[in-house]
Amino acid sequence: MEIDKSAEEDAWASEALHEHYAFSVDSGQSPLRIDKFLMSRIENATRNKIQQAAKAGSIFVNGKSVKSNYKVKGGDQVQVLLSHPPYENLLVAEALDIEVVYEDDYLAVVNKAAGMVVHPGHGNYSGTLLNGLLHHFEQLPKNSNERPGLVHRIDKDTSGLLVVARTETAMTHLAKQFFDKSSQRKYIALVWGDVQEAEGTIEGAIGRHPKNRLLMEVFPDNSQGKPAITHFKVLERFGYVTLVECQLETGRTHQIRAHMKHIGHTLFNDVRYGGDKVLKGTTFSKYKQFVENCFSFLQGQALHAQTLGFEHPHSKKYLQFEAPLPDSFQALIEKWRDYAKHKNL
Is 10 annotated as catalytic? Predict the structure, then answer.
């Protein structure tokens, strides 16, 4: 991206720069230091890194570079511009251990391990599922976000099934199924609290949290965000936690994580949404030690994409795949099951 020299007096401003981040400040934003503003919007960013970027003249507001103590206000246009292209655009094929559960000339279904990022992004420029897919398949069609093969995604610490398109036609056909809500996606989740209803439906638009843009917020009145619907069913109760099946009708970012927290049942060990603390149970130190031991079984939230169903883009046959729970997740369930049995919860 070329910056207009008239908009910036620094000598280096005429160099070719690349936009890594861009944010429009909400009209109701009260004055806030730009380093604090960016920390709540850029994943894995530290205040020191942001201040260094400002010192180097890489942070712009309304076309002019600013220092880290600049206070953003409503209507400001914030950009982080660097001399190199975003690393996530520099896709490199890598020989990674990827579990492909189905493959033909049109598509593939993979079972992603927890802890693996789906595509490169800030702080995760290699070792992602996409890097591995490019090595395995060599050529994949790009989606609307220029990400080869990806029809949908799941979070880094969520394990489970993803479908990958191998042709342009398959990409279009599969993406339409997800848009039309005709694909089937079921997840297994362990959540805090005793879910009283045997089954139910959560409806509420999901959008970025107004203060922390790394979180998603539920807006029941649909005043912000995009409509989202999650159906849930209780599979097993352990007293202080409950095992549930969640079926997505829509596919918003962090949908299950945000919706379950919204109804008071945060996912177990969900660090970002506060599930990595003891939210239900006793005050006994032995119980706290037991829960912390349970946390150690998982890298993040207890969520697994178990079932994936869709119409094949070429044969038009309905395909459905099941991925068993990872051993660590299964061990976690057994631990809670044993606890519930012996503690008379």
Answer: no
